[in-house]
Amino acid sequence: MSKNMKELPGTPLSGKELKSEKVITFKWRPNAKYAWSAGIAYGRFLDELKAGRIIGRRCSRCERIIVPPRMFCEHCFVATDEWVYVKDTGTINTFSLSYLDADANRIKDPILVAVIDIDGASPGVGILHLLGNVAPDKIDVGMKVKAVWKPPEEREGSVTDILFWEPLED
Amino acid sequence: MNIKKRVAVVGAGITLFRRRLKESGKELSFHAVNMALESAEMTRDDIDSVVMGTAPDAFDGIHMKSENLLDGAGATQKPYTHVYVGGGTGVFSPIGGWWHVASGMHDTCLVVCEEKMSPCFPHPQTAFRTIWDPITSRPLNPNLVWIFALEMHRYMKVHNIPKEHIAQVAVKNKGNALDHPSAQLGAKITVDDVLNSEIMVYPVNRLDISPPSDGAAALILASEDVARKYTDAPVWLDGVGWALDSAYWTNRDLYYPQYVEEAAKMAYKMAKINDPPKEVSFAEPYDPFTYKELHHLEGLQLAKKGEAPKLTVEGVTARDGDLPVCPSGGLLGVGNPIAAAGLMKCCEAFWQLRNEAGKRQVPKAETGVCQAWGDLMQVGTVCVFKRDS
């Protein structure tokens, strides 16, 4: 604020005051539900996950192999032209340990989160996923990892058909 | 480029920033606008057009939120536009205002940003969940802090940056905020306080994160000829730039915000700035997290890649250093009512360049750069402000 102005508008409220209804509040809980078509590229991607494979798309213009797949290359802005299976191994590009759940509640055992660059895809092409079977203090950038799949009968065509990624033994 | 009118800032206004404010969004907007009008010695009749910026409607739970806020923003019966680029909105809104005036279409444009994050339960993070791709990410139950932690860690690893150096940003900004009358979290803290604060999503500690907030801010833009009628000390909005990168963020190297560089280059070129570190006298980069200030200083070409932490440790970015950064106290100190926080940075540039920043005043303020950022690490928005030398 400018030094020429001395008073600022605004009346602070504590969370307690808001919840105890010392101020008049109105509450509403949305009940909307959504169903998304996965689309052409992600549809095939999810089908392949269900079969225990990871698939990407190749752009013949820039020669990138991209995962997750898309039917167009956002760099070249042309249609991608080929389905390419990539491996279910990769390298940790970056990782974090989450002590917050999806609603920002505190949790005791951290969720192990990583971007994993996928073997067989172009360099630096990764996916967001989880790590497991590893002590948090043993995880590092550059570590080789391998997908741990759900048993085939439990897979449903989702990124969670891979349970997590674990360190790859040499 | 065919810019018809040079654009000036002639007024600014702001409310308190707090975790929760009793006033409604319309009331907060009204207060910020009134203060801006008073400081410009204008009335609503002098306003030709209005641009409103707010971040996700989901925080307030009001769809078409800006239309709901319109009355408090003084926009009835006027050309009114809502602009929105997520977290980048606060610095994008004056860019939207700039279009109106620089094009010659309107003599004046009122720019208003408001955010109330407090209505959303159990936490504003719950609304943020809807930013994730529903097919590839949402089944993993992600929290938005994940992407920041992943980006911060990549940045630290590529440049081998110690956490202590990053923590210094929180110490500086919360300290600076002690002098900002709007500030929610001004405090005198130490690097150890940051390092010892609760780990939220490693490597992000609690004191690395800006808070959710309620608040509003406003700026008044005018064409040069009109501005001269109202003030002897116009502040010029001489450069604007913005760029967005791919939503496939796991296919990009997160160590460097290329889109911020593109946005900055566009703004510098327009403002005829050839050597940013020499010509920029202070900067207000977006700092919702400690490392983001550093990341953005590098994207803004004010530090070489990987060297912004060193500048911070050496005191270069302190308010009395060679390149004061976030003299306002930033989002970490003043608070983060998302769109209003970005516009707060532009208000700070206005006050600094008019020598009206009081205890926060940096010496020899001639050119200031403000920047905001957001989405899935995708958007950079940049404004360059100058005063008559």
Task: Return the CATH architecture of chain B.
Answer: 3-Layer(aba) Sandwich
User: What is the CATH class designation of chain B?
Assistant: Alpha Beta
Largest interface: A-B, 59 and 65 residues
Total helical elements of chain A: 2
Mean pLDDT of chain A: 93
Tally of strands of chain A? 10
The coarse silhouette of chain A is extended
Strand order of the largest sheet of chain B: 3-2-4-7-1-8-11-10-9
Overall average residue pLDDT of chain B:
96
Quickly count the helices of chain B: 15
User: Regions of chain B with pLDDT < 50 over 5+ consecutive residues?
Assistant: none
Structural class of chain B: alpha/beta
What does this structure look like?
- The complex is a heterodimer of chains A (170) and B (389).
- Chain A is mainly beta and 170 residues long.
- Chain A has two helices and ten strands, in the order ααββββββββββ.
- Chain A has helices at residues 15-19, 39-50; strands at residues 54-58, 65-66, 72-73, 78-79, 82-86, 89-100, 106-118, 126-130, 144-149, 162-167.
- Chain A has a five-stranded antiparallel sheet with strand order 8-7-6-9-10, with no helix packed on it.
- The longest helix of chain A has 12 residues, at 39-50.
- By secondary structure, chain B is an alpha/beta fold.
- Chain B has one domain (7-121, 211-387): Thiolase/Chalcone synthase (Peroxisomal Thiolase, Chain A, domain 1, 3-Layer(aba) Sandwich), CATH 3.40.47.
- Helix content of chain B is 36%, strand content 19%.
- At the A-B interface, helix 1, helix 2, strand 6, strand 7 and strand 8 of A face helix 1, helix 6 and strand 5 of B.
Can you lay out the helices and strands and say which pair or pack?
The complex is a heterodimer of chains A (170) and B (389).
Chain A: H1 15-19, H2 39-50, E1 54-58, E2 65-66, E3 72-73, E4 78-79, E5 82-86, E6 89-100, E7 106-118, E8 126-130, E9 144-149, E10 162-167
Chain B: E1 7-14, H1 25-40, E2 49-53, H2 57-60, H3 65-69, E3 80-83, H4 89-102, E4 108-116, H5 124-128, H6 145-159, H7 163-177, H8 191-196, E5 199-202, E6 204-205, E7 214-223, H9 224-230, E8 235-244, H10 258-270, H11 276-279, E9 282-284, H12 290-299, H13 308-313, H14 330-333, H15 338-353, E10 367-374, E11 379-387
Parallel strand pairs in B: 2-3, 2-4, 9-10
Antiparallel strand pairs in B: 1-7, 1-8, 4-7, 5-6, 8-11, 10-11
